[in-house]
Write a structure and sequence with these properties.
The chain is mostly helical and 251 residues long. It contains eight helices and two strands; from the N terminus they run H-H-H-E-E-H-H-H-H-H. The chain has one domain: Four Helix Bundle (Hemerythrin (Met), subunit A), CATH 1.20.120. The two termini are 39 Å apart.
Length: 251
């Protein structure tokens, strides 16, 4: 089988099981984090006086990634350059404006930044390097498969857009204003899971670290954020299932 077809098959398969990578990283990160907590000299973080500021900086990086996802989803119409697990890939037209005028895969860029903040929180230089390599190897195949689908469906218009738009690192000079206004309803409905999971993970590592260190001086930003995000998730989940308040035509 030619590499082109092989990469496409691998990408479609990896997309279906894309939830495994975060679980693997979380389990591996927990083991490394606990080991570093027991051996703080191995960390570039634990032996400094700026640990809390560093941890907050990690959260900011992850929130930046969430913001990229939220911005992308909020401006994206339904069934454009997207896919879902039941029906495969879906795209009635190509997204070429807004954030898609600067980068071809903004959602994966957002994912990378969200998980980069968590990887940095572990406090191990080598864990960050391994994370970056795994993320790239995994999502490169997924991005390839998606681009193959769009190339086959839209032909030259897609090729023209792809030739002038970076795959992963945004070119801010190419920004084109979105056609539609920002949809808070769509953003809240689709991104509530990621927002809640982000704060839960940070709170988990904060609590785990303090238990190992036998300390009780918590970074309450993480704990309060986790509580607020869980409450928000429950409210939005109820609104999505029991009401039409988050529904919006064409979004």
């Amino acid at each position: 089988m030619a590499l082109q077809e092989s990469f496409e098959i691998q990408g479609n398969r990896l997309f279906r099981y894309r939830g495994i990578l975060p679980i693997f990283l979380l389990v591996a990160g927990t083991v490394v984090y606990a080991y570093i907590e027991l051996n703080p000299a191995l960390s570039f973080l634990k032996v400094t006086l700026y640990e809390k500021y560093y941890e907050t900086g990690c959260l900011i990086i992850s929130l930046l990634g969430f913001s990229v996802r939220a911005y992308t989803v909020g401006y994206t119409p339904a069934k454009t350059s997207g896919r879902n697990t039941k029906e495969g890939q879906i795209a009635d037209r190509i997204n070429t404006v807004g954030i898609y005028s600067m980068v071809r895969h903004p959602l994966y860029l957002g994912n990378f930044l969200m998980w980069l903040g968590i990887a940095l929180l572990i406090g191990s230089f080598w864990f960050v390097i391994v994370f970056c390599l795994l993320f790239w190897l995994y999502y490169e195949r997924i991005m390839f498969a998606e681009e193959q689908f769009l190339r086959k469906k839209f032909g030259q218009p897609y090729i023209d857009w792809a030739n002038k738009t970076p795959a992963f690192i945004p070119n801010f000079k190419k920004f084109v204003k979105p056609d539609l206004p920002f949809s808070w309803k769509k953003m809240l409905k689709q991104e509530k899971n990621g927002f809640t999971a982000l704060f839960i993970v940070f709170a988990f590592f904060e609590i785990l670290g303090k238990i190992i260190e036998k300390e009780n001086e918590y970074n309450y930003l993480f704990l309060i954020g986790a509580i607020v995000s869980i409450i928000t998730y429950i409210i939005l989940k109820y609104m999505k299932k029991k009401t039409n308040l988050l529904n919006e035509d064409g979004r």
